[in-house]
Amino acid sequence: MSATPPAGTASLKLARSNRQSPARKRADRFGDRALLLICGAAALLALVVIVLIAKEVVEGAQPAISKFGLGFLTHSEWAPPLEKFGGKGVILGTLITSAMALFIGAPVAISIGIFLALLAPPSVRNVISPLVEMLAAIPSVILGFWGVLILGPVLVSTIEPFLHNTLGFIPLFGAPQTTGNSVFNAGLILTIMVIPIIASVTRDLFMAVPSELQDGAAALGSTRWEVIRGVVLPSTLSGITAACLLGLGRALGEAIAVAQVIGGATESHLSLFKTGGTMASLIALQFNSAVSALHTASLYYLAAILLVIGITSNLLASWVGHRFGAAGGETR
Amino acid sequence: MRLFRRKPGEEFDPTQPLVATGNLGRRHAVSRVAQSLAVAAAIGAVVVLVIVIWAVVSHGIKAINWTFVTSGYPTGVGPYLVGTGEIVAIATLMAMPIGVLIALFLSEYAGRRWTRPVQLILDVMNGLPSIIVAVFIYILIVAPTQKQTGIAAAVALAIIEVPLIARGTQEVLNLVPSHQREAADALGVARWRGILTIILPAALGGIVTATLLSVARAAGETAPVLLIDSLAKGDSVQFNPFGQIPNVPVRIFQLSEEANPEGFTEAWGLSLILIVIILALGLSSRFLLNRSKRKLTR
Question: Is cis: bond before B74, omega within 30 of 0?
């Protein structure tokens, strides 16, 4: 503190030059107002963009909404040349892939969070943490491309037949197909995308748990795992939920990687090993080749559904994080 | 959690010595299993990263040579690289001032009342699927003019970048010690002069970091460019932002959809270049952030 920070000298210089002349005062009053106005306008602009997005997308979907109504959600035939559009297949596909990503990804990601925050020595943490964040930085188009060329063939040749033979009595694990593009592949790619998001949020949550609480439990004779299960996890439950919702939002809305690996089918089925589609990926695949105005409007309808789900999951995440986040602290 | 043995119906007697239950070994075993699972999860994530990066590097390195980087379609990818650079640069020029101003609003003006709603808007904006932003810009700009343009794609990318820049900048602005603000106030420096000459310069490192991270994110975003700027041929470098601009993500996407081995090689090469750029941006931003944080919290 003994050295004068450079910013301090700057303000001193400013103050010396400040003779408080009336012109100067006027300029300052104007400057203050202008800066507040510009900053406020920028914040307002963000709100305007959100509102405008909602308005434009819903308006664009209007022809499809008035033609199909809510029946769009339960009807599964998607046949652009026949002007028939039903979203059930891709809605189901979206739910299945996202659920798969979250069911596999969340436990793994939370474990990574536990490892990084509570188990790893700092030297290990400082290496692994950036690596996990690096996983999040890989562009989805590259991950999808990798899914098509590397992951797909492996799945078809070994993993899918194995799962079908052992768990084939469950409808999810139907007969494998010849192509590596499948709902299963898409679910795995989404898992890879979701893990770093949840892991880095939960890591920060766990690091913020007061060490007195943990030490207290340890002093009562708890093992490492009992401290985690009895103190760390319960006190951060809301934050963990918020992190999972963020991951879910990402999985639901991912268009490109899924479009590459899922195969672009639209019929509704439960088998993981067949080709399928999700709302976001169908938009990405068919938007540029839409055959009619109604086709485009139906894609906008899907976008509108996606928008509602996306905003809801984000608001929910923020609400859960703040409402129940007393001990958990920040959610981001 | 019951740690010590007590017979049913027996009252707790504090004078009795504490005797550990016989299942101590089991509890330790459970703990050890749980810990090794956590370690395994972390190793698994790193292994996946290594597998993906290795695939991109080992395949991509075969494609890359001087002609590949400098010439245009069909022998090289130069125009795509330049095009992505242009689109991202335009997007960042639009997004950076807006993001920084929003961050300033949050840290300097918002107060208790406005912080929550504005942050919520940023969160929602950050969580919007990029395909939605792409559809929005298509309806707003491309559909009325009936023309795909690089500038429209840049606007979409800017919408994606703004919340990232605002968040990152705000975090660093909050680190600027409050005594610097108070010192400026005490010396009679007007608020806006204080913000522009003291607080912003102190947070400059953080602003640059946030911007670099958002550039890394925007460079790999595919959905907006796919819907808004996907028709350029890529045989020559395009400089007119009001026309179509060839770009990297769309090219990789299109090549991955075609079953053409030569195309795959080109896509691996492009992926390698893109990943190297993105990781370099990420690493340099991390370095910068650590440096500027050290400076601020000194």
Answer: yes
In sequence order, which ranges of A180-328 are alpha helices (DSSP H)?
Answer: 183-207, 211-219, 224-227, 233-235, 237-253, 256-262, 279-286, 293-323
* DSSP code at position B20: B
At A242, the pLDDT band (50, 70, 90 cuts) reads very high
pLDDT(A15) > 80: no
> What token pair was written down for A5?
């920070």
| Residue carrying the six token digits 């030059």 | A17
| Pick from A114, A138, A195: CB nearest B52 | A138
pLDDT range class, residue A4, cuts 50, 70, 90: very low
**Residue A332 has what pLDDT?**
36
* Count of all residues that appear for chain A in the document: 332
Classify residue A81 by its DSSP letter: G
Q: Which residue among B31, B167, B279 places its CB closest to the CB of A137?
A: B279
Average pLDDT for residues A297-301, to the nearest whole number? 93
User: What is the CATH code for A71-323?
Assistant: 1.10.3720.10
CA distance A186 to chain B (A): 15
Q: Does the beta-carbon distance from A139 to B31 stay under 8 Å?
A: no
Could you give phi then psi for residue B14, rounded to 5 degrees?
Answer: -65, -20
**Overall average pLDDT of the B103-107 stretch:** 91
User: B288 vs chain A: nearest CA distance in angstroms?
Assistant: 14
Give the per-residue pLDDT at B46. Answer: 95
What domains can you pick out in chain B, each with its CATH number?
1-63 (no CATH), 65-296 (1.10.3720.10)
ipTM: 0.88
- The domain segmentation of chain A, as residue ranges, is 21-68, 71-323
Coil, helix or strand for A277?
A: coil
CB contact under 8 A, A223 and B120: no
Residues 74-103 of A with CB under 8 A from B: none
- Is A170 in a helix, a strand, or coil? coil
Report pLDDT digits (tens) over A41-50: 999 999 999 9
Provide the token pair at A313.
């999951």
pLDDT digits (tens, 9 = 90+) for B27-58: 889 999 999 999 999 999 999 999 999 999 99
* Letter string b/e over residues B213-252, b meaning 16 or more CB atoms within 10 A of that residue's CB: bbbbbbbbbbbbbbbbbbebebeeebeebeebbbbbbbbb
Q: How far is B287 from chain A (nearest CA, A)?
A: 12
- First CA to last CA across chain B, in angstroms? 44
From the list A144, A230, A288, the residue facing B227 with the nearest CB is: A288
For the ranges A17-31, A143-157, A187-201, the lowest mean pLDDT is seen at A17-31
The answer to whether residue A82 scores a pLDDT higher than 90 is no
Which tokens go with B92?
């960042």
Nearest to A46 among B104, B121, B253 (CB): B121
Give the integer Cα–Cα distance in Å for B63 and A187. 30
